[in-house]
Amino acid sequence: MDYFKKLLDLLKTEREEDRKAYQELTETSSVAERRANGLCWYPIAIRGSEMSRGDYLTVEVERTTHQDVAHQLRFGVSAVLFSNHDAKNNRVEGTITYQSRNTLKITLRTDELPDWSSDGKLGIDLLFDDNSYDEMQNALKLATTLQEKPEEGRLIQILTGAKQPTFHTDIPHYTIPSLNASQQEAVNKILNANELAIVHGPPGTGKTTTLVQAIKALWKQDHKQILVVAPSNTAVDLLTEKLSDEGLNVLRVGNPAKVSDRLMSLTLDSKASEHNSMKEIKKLKRQASEFRDMAHKYKRNFGKAEREQRQALFTEARNIMKSVESTEQYIVNDLISKAQVITATLVGSNHYTVRHLKYHTVVIDEAGQALEPACWIPILKAKKVVLAGDHCQLPPTVKSSEAARNGLSTTLLEKCTALHPEAVTLLEEQYRMNENIMGYSSQVFYEGRLKAHTSVAQHLLHDADTALNFVDTSGCGFDEKIEGTSTTNPEEAAFLFKHLTQFVTGLQGHYTNGHFPSIAVISPYKQQVQLLKEQLLHSPELQPYAEYITVNTIDSFQGQERDIVYISLTRSNTENKIGFLSDIRRMNVAMTRARKKLVVIGDSGTLSNLAFYADFIAYAEEKNAYQSAWEFMDL
């Protein structure tokens, strides 16, 4: 089957599954349930409105209650303004064009606010994200067309394995004193690559630092605008800030997830608002609104003269808005032409303001967490691509198990690393973990090539401590309980907090309260995390340290780190079933979050059926880090 035909089929399967899940969440749910699921803001208040492109109305709204509820409303997604008086009929669809804290702007597919909008009970519902799927689908179709063309198809053929990447051999070695040897090697590989370079960045190896220096070097090399993308707004924000810190002129397309004045100042909207021509636009928009307001004052039962007058007013407003659009386009073009680096999410790279742009180089960060179809959106704008990430950590979330099984969860990074090892640089020195915490992951996932920088290799919480502990609950009767699709182990949770309490008590003599080590308690299972959170609430001795303790799932913790990490593996049964603990990449994430202390709690009897866990327990024994939970039973 054709490469892209297969991807299109997998994407279709995923889209159907995703839509089904969305419909199940929304079709019969109340506004309160949708709000709790992060799909709705309700109630809201309208704070202002203005005309925008294409005779559409942009409305600014504020979430007036439930402001601490997490939500999925973000820049670029489709949403609907509704009235809860009659939510089926009183609704206008649109696109969110800005979101920060408890304010958002939605561009509605109408030129005036409906009458019902003044009756209260207003809300914003998230619609199914067809736009992202459309963009991915269109990119795959375009790739199908372009792959046969000699010039445009070359990069596609390399990424799909039909051709090999090539490298310059005559570019002088570029030296950046602040980088280590493998980071330098990665930068030079990127500079020498004609079509493809891959930066494999294990945990704590300074991948972002390396990429930022590489992007800076690329700009110095040929002064060609660079597109830098990532699957999440959070990753884009980090790169945007760091690139700007290096003195590059960065333009952030889209809406940052992180609320910071610094980041906002780098966005297209913010830079446009500071542009010299913006005063003229504001003046024109005011005029257009005035004409529109005058036109709307005419009642429905008016005569021919009034109808003509009304029409003339609308025409005048429309003409003014055309001038606004052309001036806005001039501003956007001006800002884009001056930017050295453009940053966006994968889908955001096709935002209407930058859709037409082509680049010499596109850099995709966190490529190990990016769905392949989404990667093709920016790739088709490039002659050369840099993929950076770690395919040995968690892959992107795929909702359809069928699509995942058939290859959608395999990333382009993983494929290209296997296809083109000559394009890959492994960052080999990590700056996070004590070497005993790092050792097992290095052995299993990184061919034993990872080494700890001298600043962290031996670091401990205090001289008498050890960096690694595996506490074996085998034979303790801590049996798991299956709850729906999740698993819990109440006794293991209780034991973990007894152990943590004793450990924290022992740290008191070494740390003052203001400088206490950060602690994470993580588990693969959501229900176990709930139990662990409850245990924390009911651990009076830990309350003085609660601000230092985070409890979450492993998946939610990817990309983070803490001084101390406790892992509750949860599974304990006579059938030796371990469920998705068998995805060892999840455990790679879990085991590499800790800087100075890693405590893994689990049942060796259940876990040892999988070689990964049997070998980890052997590694712990070798490091004198194995303990039986029985040793702590009198806690």
TrEMBL record:
CDD domains: SF1_C_Upf1
Keywords noted in UniProt: ATP-binding, Helicase, Hydrolase, Nucleotide-binding
Annotated PANTHER family: DNA-BINDING PROTEIN SMUBP-2 (PTHR43788:SF8), DNA2/NAM7 HELICASE FAMILY MEMBER (PTHR43788)
SMART domains per UniProt: AAA (SM00382), DEXDc (SM00487)
Source organism per UniProt: Filimonas lacunae
InterPro entries: AAA+_ATPase, Coronavir_polyprotein_1ab, DNA2/NAM7-like_C, DNA2/NAM7_AAA_11, Helicase_ATP-bd, P-loop_NTPase, SF1_C_Upf1
Family to which the UniProt record says this protein belongs: Belongs to the DNA2/NAM7 helicase family.
Positions of the AAA+ ATPase domain: 193-417
Domain Helicase ATP-binding: 175-430
Name recorded for this polypeptide: DNA helicase, putative
